[in-house]
Design a protein that fits this description.
InterPro entries: GHMP_kinase_C_sf, Mev_decarb, MVD-like_N, Mvd1_C, Ribosomal_Su5_D2-typ_SF, Ribsml_uS5_D2-typ_fold_subgr
Helix content: 25-40%
Protein name: Diphosphomevalonate decarboxylase
Keywords: ATP-binding, Lipid biosynthesis, Lipid metabolism, Lyase, Nucleotide-binding
Number of strands: 13
Order of helices and strands: EEEEEEHEHHEEHEHHHHEEHE
Shape: globular
Radius of gyration: 20 Å
Structural class: alpha+beta
Strand content: 15-25%
Bound molecules: ligand DP6
Organism: Capnocytophaga gingivalis
Length: 356
């Protein structure tokens, strides 16, 4: 299998100690990943925008190991505070990737992380967190193997991030990113994300205003949600729809077709939530204000022809998407009509990260 290429042979360099840092940005899916098999293999490909303001910054310090009583020696700090309750997640990640990063067993790792967004904002941080961790580990691996190519570095960073959290493998790149094999995109892979090429300039200017409708803990986690796609009565139709959406979105992105973009992205968001509502057991993550906001967005679009649309992640929050050229028209509408629907009137103004 192709994973073999990510298992290192002997490294050319010896490394005593290292300190690396990486900032990885969150992403919002346009075509959604929902359902997986084996070791983090998606049931359908997905495409996302990487954002500019919502990020995780991680610093890893690596030193010779002093304690051999457990599989790994790791200390983890979040916002400068020791956070032992995060350790099991990191240990699970290290266990999954240890064949690909063999030095994990031989060193002591001190990991310090922080997010640009509040922990309680109801924004999924696993994508940016796992991407930051994966890229840091690749920065260390590059010290062991300085000859490694840029392409290998990026593919393997995304490959490792995927093993931490599926959507994280799209957060190792900026811009528009595809994860999952699709016949319409050469080089696409279930194992790692790749940047989408041939994307119209307008999409590099896209704004994502996140309406924090509900900042609380979700009643059903994404992990559980993915599991409920196994044996779901509409799963096969959904996976097929997502594949068709990838092909359609590829051409929409190339042409700069805003009408096509809005229709496809909203259909994806509602299809994702339809899967939740038809799972066994069924559940609902939208809140009354999610629907109220959607109706206002549709009303504004119909009455002003402004190209704004929404998408949803696996929660109640809304991501409002529109080109930068319309910012001055749309912000007053957000402030007046949508902010009052948000918990603590909180919104986050983010945008696509177009620069690497
Ligand atoms: C609805 O990537 O959080 O945001 O692989 O189990 O960590 P795991 O799941 P995760 O699922 C993301 C689901 C989604 C859609 C998407 O980002 O594509």
């Amino acid at each position: 299998m192709l994973v073999e290429k990510f298992i290192p042979k002997a490294y050319s360099e010896r490394v005593e100690a290292a300190k690396v840092r990486h900032r990885a940005y969150s992403n919002i899916a346009l075509v959604k990943y929902w359902g997986k098999r084996d070791e983090q293999i998606p049931m359908n490909p997905s495409i996302s925008f990487t954002l500019s303001h919502s990020y995780t910054e991680t610093v890893i310090e690596m030193a010779p190991r002093t304690d051999f009583t457990s599989s790994f020696q790791i200390d983890f700090f979040f916002d400068e505070e020791p956070k032992d309750n995060f350790l099991p997640k990191i240990e699970t990640f290290f266990t999954r990737i240890r064949n690909y990063i063999p030095f994990l067993r031989d060193y002591y790792f001190v990991i310090r992380s922080s997010n640009s967004f509040p922990h309680s904002a109801g924004i999924a941080s696993s994508a940016s967190a796992m991407a930051a961790l994966a890229v840091c580990l690749m920065k260390i691996e590059k010290l062991f193997d300085p000859e490694m190519t840029e392409q290998f570095f990026h593919e393997k960073a995304s490959f490792l991030a995927r093993l931490g959290s599926g959507s994280a493998c799209r957060s190792t790149y900026s811009g528009v990113v595809l994860w999952g094999e699709h016949s319409a995109v050469m080089g696409s892979s279930d194992l790692y994300g790749i940047p989408m090429e041939d994307v119209h300039e307008v999409f590099n200017t896209y704004q994502d205003t996140i309406l924090l409708i509900d900042k609380g803990q979700k009643p059903v986690s994404s992990t559980k949600g993915h599991q409920l796609m196994i044996g779901h009565p509409y799963a096969e139709a959904r996976f097929l729809q997502a594949r068709e959406h990838i092909a359609a979105l590829k051409s929409i992105l190339k042409k700069g077709d805003l009408e096509g973009f809005m229709a496809l992205v909203e259909s994806e968001a509602l299809a994702l939530h339809a899967m939740m509502m038809t799972s066994d057991p069924y559940y609902l993550l939208m809140r009354p204000n999610t629907i109220a906001a959607i109706e206002k967005i549709w009303y504004l679009r119909a009455s002003t022809q402004k190209p704004l649309c929404f998408t949803l992640d696996a929660g109640a929050n809304i991501h409002l998407l529109y080109p930068k050229a319309y910012k001055a028209d749309i912000i007053p509408f957000i402030e007046r009509e949508l902010k009052p629907l948000c918990q603590d009137q909180e919104v986050i103004y983010d945008e696509v990260k177009s620069e690497p």
